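Appendix B. One record, verbatim.
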Amino acid sequence: MTTNDWDALAGTFDQEPDHGLRDPVVRAAWAGRMAGWLPGEPGRVLDLGCGTGSLALLAAEAGHRVTAVDRSPRMAALARAELAGTDAEVLVGDATGPPVARGAFDVVLARHVLWALPDPEAALRRWASLLRPGGRLVLIEGVWSGAGLPAARLTAALGPLAERVHHETLSADPALWGRAVDDERYALVARLAPAPRHTEVVDVHLILRRGAEVLLARRAGTGYADGLLNAPSGHVESGEDVRAAMIREASEEIGISLAPGDLRVALVMQHRGPAGAPRIGWFFEAEYGAGGEPVNREPHKCSGLSWHPLAALPDDMVAYCRAGLDAYGAGERFVIHWHEDGDPIAHRPAGPDRAVPLPATDRGP
């Protein structure tokens, strides 16, 4: 439609109760529907093809921060008058390419707009890009005397864009239109997938004590940190708790059979390797003799086991493990160890100390 077409419709939309919402019954009906379509918490709402701004006003009155866009300067002027007294922003722009930032909105709202666009599917893809993860498209459309968009077409177009689509029939509610209607009128609320939750690998490390000494294993043949010393360690597997994982790794790597009561939590560290993703390391302490004599059970990954004084650890260690043992020796319990991207995997005696101890609560006696 041209700008003149929209201007010609402006007066009509402003007079009909379903668009101007002058009738209190109609207004209350739309307010009730909007409460179910919009988020319960205040968010940013973009009303595209806002017309006179009647729905934008309902969103603003519900506490949302509203940006309203219409390609008709006359419509935009009507919307500004309708939204006077709110903090809503009204812009002149095309609904297919509104003058707003991508990924900035919690809701994109459009009523009786898509049917007039030359490529509704392309418009939907563009509108979805304006939403934050987990945002929603609220689309009010219909088919009137053969014109318009069937719900099935829009639902199919939303399939690749949304995590789920809710269809709500509006034709049977005369309060929304100020009269009974017999055509197809509906709302679709399409919710995008939320942002992926942050996840981290969980490691377990064994500090096996023989008096003042700790046991270290020299890595070999793994493709990562080979030739460097490291405490017996490994990843927590799906369904395991950290204690069970430590018991399993101790058995697999050094052949000792620890019981749960043999383990004490020594340190918890969040670590990031050079150019890597964060991970959580649980360091457990156990005494020599618990579970038997340690032996190298993985010669394909380890070239040998050796004992070293905790107070004089060797320098040729994995930096992650060395930071954990240094913090443990200093009596720390919680540490962040965050490599810069250019740092080596190996411990650097003269390099910057990346370990940041975190104070623990002192609850007193």
